[in-house]
Specification:
It is built from nine helices and ten strands. With 302 residues, the chain is of the alpha/beta class. The strands form two sheets. It has a six-stranded mixed β-sheet. Strands 2-9-1-8 form a four-stranded mixed β-sheet, with no helix packed on it. Helix 1 (2-36) packs antiparallel against helix 2 and helix 4 (67-73) crosses helix 5 (75-83).
Length: 302
């Protein structure tokens, strides 16, 4: 029985050595990327290869959960993006769902059940959020963000910003009025998380800092007349109004059958991985990656 035991030990040792070698190669690749700058040609490919090596060695639980996020951001950041994704709570009567514009642009594929937990449309389109990360936590993250044109200056330093952008096929903010007043094709709404030394905060990004609190103190900013940052303690929820899809005041979910998309059923799509043709898609409103807040996560505009 000595030979099988020795073979098993040698096999186990080989596995450990192989895993160590894979990790060493991956870390060397990532280290070189940090040294030469993350925006050089072929860097994205090299980062993806290094990440896949880590995943192949079974060194990150995030790989099995969100492989596309891991390929875009690496295991640690991917885990944070997934962890902080919001549960979406819809206003009563809504049927619209946020979807992937690359496969669905129209009411025939962008609507689903009007109550209960919902994560796909009647046409089978999954509920989706496009995500974007600005990492200002350390010197390496700030340098990489600056190279990409993102603002980590001043009080932004030390923070990690994660943006979740929801695409809807249209917007009808004045749907109770006759005609097409207040209606336009395409709609983008955003939810943003700021993770810093003081804790985790959140806000609605695309409607002048909506914070769900209601009351006259927020009327001017909610109407778009003035801007404010509106950061508040993150509760992990994004409340969505019917018609406009903007944020709305928190509702008592016990008063009526709720409609929501669980955070873990929301398909997360890194904007950084969109190909040029997708980024050039024409919309009736400004695309998220063209908004000032995309580059400056503290911007107070829409």
């Amino acid at each position: 029985m000595e030979e099988p035991r020795r073979a098993a030990r040698e096999g186990g040792q080989a596995t450990v050595e192989w895993t160590g070698l894979v990790l060493l190669v991956a870390l060397l690749v990532l280290g070189v990327l940090a040294g030469v700058g993350a925006r050089l040609p072929a860097t994205a490919l090299a980062r993806t290869i290094a990440t896949k090596l880590i995943c192949a060695a079974g060194l990150s639980d995030a790989c099995a959960m969100e492989p596309e996020l891991v390929a875009a951001y690496g295991p640690e950041l991917a885990g944070r993006v997934a962890k902080n994704a919001p549960e979406i709570i819809y206003e009563k009567g809504m049927t619209a769902l946020p979807v992937d514009f690359r496969s669905c642009r129209g009411s025939r594929c962008g609507n689903g059940p009007d109550s209960g937990a919902v994560w796909s449309s009647d046409a089978g389109e999954p509920a989706a959020a496009f995500v974007h990360v600005v990492d200002c936590r350390d010197d390496e993250g700030r340098a990489e963000s600056a190279a990409g044109g993102f603002d980590c200056s001043g009080d932004r330093a030390g923070n990690l910003y994660i943006q979740y952008w929801l695409y809807y096929e249209d917007s009808t903010s004045l749907r109770d009025l006759p005609g097409d007043v207040g209606m336009h094709e395409d709609d983008w709404e955003g939810y943003q998380v700021r993770i810093g030394p003081a804790g985790t905060e959140a806000r609605a990004t695309s409607h002048h800092g909506y914070n769900y609190r209601g009351g006259p103190g927020g009327w001017l900013s909610d109407a778009g007349i003035v801007h404010r940052s509106a950061w508040g303690r993150s509760l992990g929820h994004f409340y969505v109004s019917g018609g406009s899809h903007a944020g709305h005041v928190d509702e008592d979910r016990r008063s009526s059958p709720p409609r929501w998309t669980p955070a873990d059923r929301l398909e997360l799509i890194p904007i950084e991985t969109l190909d040029p043709s997708a980024r050039r898609t024409r919309f009736a409103i400004v695309r998220p990656w063209r908004k000032p807040v995309y580059r400056d996560p503290e911007d107070e505009g829409t």
